[in-house]
Amino acid sequence: MSVSAGLPARGDNRPLRIGIAGLGTVGLGVVKLIGENADILRLHCPRAIEVVAVSARDRKKDRGVDVSRFAWCEDPLSLPDHPEVDVVAEMIGGSEGVAKALVEKAIAKGKHVVTANKALLAHHGTALALAAEKAGVALAYEAAVAGGIPIIKAMREGLAANRIEQVYGILNGTCNYILTQMRETGREFADVLAEAQKLGYAEADPSFDVDGIDAAHKLSILTSVAFGCQIDFSGVRISGIRNVSAMDIAYADELGYRIKLLGIARVTTHGVEQRVHACMVPVAAVIAKVDGVYNAVVTNGNYVGQNVAIGRGAGERPTASAVVSDLMDIARDRILPAFSAPADQLKKLPAAPAGSHVGPYYLRLMVVDRPGVIADIAAAMRDESVSMEAMIQRARAPGEAVPVVLTTHDTTEAAIDRVVARLKRLDSILEPPHVLPIELLS
Ligand code: HSE
Questions:
Q1: What does pTM read for this prediction?
Q2: What does the pLDDT read at residue 6?
Q3: What is the Å distance from ligand 1's center to 295 Cα?
Q4: Among 116, 109, 361, CA closest to 248
Q5: Within this chain, do residues 257 and 190 fall inside the same structural domain, yes or no?
Q6: Would you say residue 61 lies in a domain?
Q7: From the CA of 395, how far away is ligand 1's center (Å)?
Q8: 117 within ligand 1 shell (Cβ under 6 A)
């Protein structure tokens, strides 16, 4: 791919000049890193990297960092017009609005783009990559997926010789922190979430995180890089962690599992399966041991086998590390197609139909302990050809609500949905069944 577009030619050692839109956590982290690690950057890069212009909402705000030495652009959309800006670093966020307009304009003006914006890429990544490649500029986004983990570089470069068969990971630190706290303290979701919000680990509006949307944005990008296909965010089946209860976490322990919010992408005979959901993974699986705010991404390549990357998925310093590594690649004139294959060669792969996932499941039913209840449950499973693997029921006083926990052998999600629909109609079952897929990962 040629890199011209009015930019310094290969071998040019003029500084690479950056315009940063958005001086929140990430934007300021980038300013700090470029200043504090200038010697490292200079050693590793043929060209200096300099911030020359910034744009943010409030010019007067005390940010604890002197930004007065940079040109100030009231309107972020004027950054690509700035004659000294070679690269626009979009650190605003959001899938539409200013962020999208800014990235589109920067590309149209022949400026490289570095972004941390997973929502923008999940919704418009393929179109933006096409535009960037046509314009001969970079669309770089290491910080958008799993923060400081250099997983995009690993997949596009170190693992590039492999056919990737599966990619999955812990892609949201907030959820991983909450689930870890729930397991370690035995407390319920709402309680742990409230505390995480007080400590600043969870947003005041936590829905993007706890409902799985943030992880789904990241998964849709990983899927494209892994399988060389167009991004299909609408093909991700998404659920979050609000319904995970302390009781399920305790049963997971008893059964030899951990509950994790995973994003999982696989190519199946039915199409590409992309799922974000809480699920049970064996305690021995590498990913089961990734706790707290950490993220992890696991890839399975046909030559390399399993590869695991673990690190911090959010925060000023890890995210800045990823953004600046993208800037360094541009300064080194190392510009690759955004999603591993040239954008016009990304395949449009069909999404696996809803219900086609095959695997074992965990079900927890709150039942009235009276004659015939287990027979009714077993009949629903028999009628839908779902085979039970194990069952736990502890004694309680007759008439009391009691948990019945079942695990199944491999079955389809559609069959489990039909079993659940039947169980909901039984008056001996007191709550909607709690269902979690079991992922037999290693
Ligand atoms: N809110 C995300 C998380 C980080 O908790 O992992 C940014 O995507």
A1: 0.94
A2: 43
A3: 9
A4: 361
A5: yes
A6: yes
A7: 42
A8: no
CATH number of the domain encompassing residue 377: 3.30.70.260
Helix (H, G, I), strand (E, B) or coil at 31: helix
CATH code of residue 224: 3.30.360.10
Q: Would the CB of 176 count as within 6 Å of ligand 1?
A: no
Residue with the smallest CA separation from ligand 1 atom 4 is: 314
Q: Measured in Å, how far apart are the chain's first and last C-alpha atoms?
A: 38
337 lies in a domain?
no
Instruction: Please tell me whether residues 211 and 155 are part of one structural domain.
Output: yes
Domain boundary among the residues 92, 117, 144 is at 144
Annotated catalytic, 105?
no
- Domain stops at, among 312, 337, 368: 312
Closest ligand 1 atom, residue 208 Cα = 1
What's the confidence (pLDDT) of residue 4?
Answer: 40
Ligand 1 and 214: CB distance under 6 A: yes
The answer to whether residues 20 and 65 belong to one domain is: yes
172 lines ligand 1 (CB under 6 A): yes
Return the structure tokens found at 166. Answer: 């599966």
Other Cβ atoms closer than 10 A to 338: 28
Question: Do both 255 and 395 map to the same domain?
Answer: no
18/89 same-domain check: yes
How confident is the model at residue 11, as a pLDDT?
Answer: 58
Tell me if residue 185 falls in helix, strand or coil. Answer: helix
Which residues touch 227 (CB under 8 Å, ≥6 apart)?
164, 265, 267, 272, 347, 349
Instruction: Judge if the beta carbon of residue 411 lies within 6 A of ligand 1.
Output: no
Determine the atom of ligand 1 nearest the C-alpha atom of 314.
4
Catalytic residue among 218, 260, 289, 348: 218
Helices (H), 228-292: 246-255
Produce one character per residue of 197-230: b if its CB has 16 or more CB atoms within 10 Å, e if not: eeeebbeeebebbbbbbbbbbbbbbbbbbbbbbb
Assigned domain for 70 exists: yes
173 lines ligand 1 (CB under 6 A): yes
Q: How far is the CA of 152 from the centre of ligand 1 (A)?
A: 17
Number of domains in the chain: 3
204 and 119 fall within a common domain = no
Q: With a cut of 70, which residues of the chain have pLDDT below it?
A: 1-11, 399
What domain range includes position 36?
Answer: 4-144
Q: Which atom of ligand 1 is nearest to the CA of 218?
A: 8
- Asked whether residue 169 falls in the same domain as residue 95, the answer is no
Residue 1 has what pLDDT? 38
Q: Say how many Å lie between the CA of residue 261 and the centre of ligand 1.
A: 13
pLDDT of residue 2: 36
